Amino acid sequence: MNETKTSELISEVSEIKKSNWFLSDNPILRYITFSALYVAQGIPEGITYFAIPAWLAMNNKTPIEIASFVAVIGIPWSFKILIAPLMDRFTILSMGRKRPWVIFGQLGLIVSFLAIGLVHDPLNNLNGLMIAGFFISFFGAFQDVATDGMAIDIVPLKEQARANGLMWGSKTIGTALSLVIGTSLINLLGFTTAVSSLSIAVAFIILFPILFRERSGEKLMPWTIGKPSKQSKNAQLKSWKQIFKSLLKIIILPSTIMMGLASIISGFMYGLVDTLLPIFTIQELGWTNTSYSQVYSITTVVGGFIGMFAGGALVDFLGNKKMIIIYLIATTVLIASLALLPEFWKNDKFIFGFILLYYLFYTLLCIAIFAACMKLCWRVVAATQFTLFMALSNMGRASGSGLVGTLKEIMSWEYVLLCTAISPLITIFFIKYIDFKKHRKSIEEFTIQ
């Protein structure tokens, strides 16, 4: 009898130990895996959105040429809304609802990131550079949709603000480190060697979705033993009609519409600032691409670390809506101050302080908005709905990036910055009309029906 009890106890302990390697059962493993996947998005983004534009600016490319490159690589992020329903409808369910798509997206990201290093004479072949950058963004967006979908499925509601802080902070740090390291390697070893070296880190991160399953009993790979979990089978949507009917119900709610409009306008601001900063600092203030990348990296790493450990906590303590409005007001004042104080532009400490504060508010704002978007999601179509918010934001971002060159052609930097400062003010107007309680009540009525 004692032997039987001992055997059962050993079996239970063994099962507990095994469960520690499944994302659904291990919070620490969840945080590490999702943070690593967001680092994998940040590395190519640091090169394409920041290092390459700064490098082009150093080599006397015009603001319109640089803005065009950034706008083109931003386009695939608007396709996310087309990708998400595909992932909700089809998958290898025995491997998990989203993990197969995460692996596929990460593989594409590795290949496309290697491919951009093979573009011949990139300074005089901007079309080739744009095409390669487009595919990096496409697979980056693909991996992002799958990762967000897996996070919504796996991470409990009470952990989502904290998880968003860690994920977005990790992406920010990955972007910053890849920018400073990539810029140094480009200047020392050349474009091809620099990109090829950084792609190794992106390749290594694929081990996380390969080694760690969503839930117990699922297959590690298509050819291994395993079966779909009960949770995955219950959550999997069976038809396109079911997906789009459910999505239509949730997107016509007032709070969904307000958040969608806020996402577009805030994304527009991100695109303007991200594109104008390297052009402004290098061509107007006389910085080098190395000095810009170092300042950007330092400030975003600081913002990333603060966001990782404080972003989610502040949202939990003071609430999504209040924190978003605070960050938007602070960002408006900050950008307007830079526009109205041109006599301080030659003061490197002043510009450093501006960049530091902007990327701190940017990181905290992204964490608060992402947490709010998740809060507005109906779990039946959560991945597609969340992706819709992100696609709208990236649509605004691409538009803002493409507009920088045109604005600079018709007005001075002071007025370009003042135009940028209007965006967060408009965003506040839409955020104020979001009602989380009323929205949640509507979702409960959908569920009852």
Automatic annotation (TrEMBL):
Cellular component GO terms, alphabetical: membrane
Keywords of this entry: Membrane, Transmembrane, Transmembrane helix
Principal localisation: membrane
Transmembrane segments: 28-52, 64-87, 99-120, 126-145, 166-188, 194-212, 247-273, 293-317, 324-345, 351-371, 376-395, 415-434
Protein topology in the membrane: Multi-pass membrane protein
UniProt-listed InterPro entries: AmpG_permease/AT-1, MFS, MFS_dom, MFS_trans_sf
Compartment(s) where it occurs, according to its Swiss-Prot or TrEMBL record: Membrane
Pfam families: MFS_1
GO molecular function per UniProt: transmembrane transporter activity
PROSITE patterns, A to Z: MFS
Keyword Transmembrane helix recorded: yes
The UniProt record lists the keyword Transmembrane: yes
Domain Major facilitator superfamily (MFS) profile as annotated: residue spans: 255-449
PANTHER family: ACETYL-COENZYME A TRANSPORTER 1 (PTHR12778:SF9), SOLUTE CARRIER FAMILY 33 ACETYL-COA TRANSPORTER -RELATED (PTHR12778)
Listed name of the protein: MFS transporter, PAT family, beta-lactamase induction signal transducer AmpG
Record organism: Flaviramulus basaltis
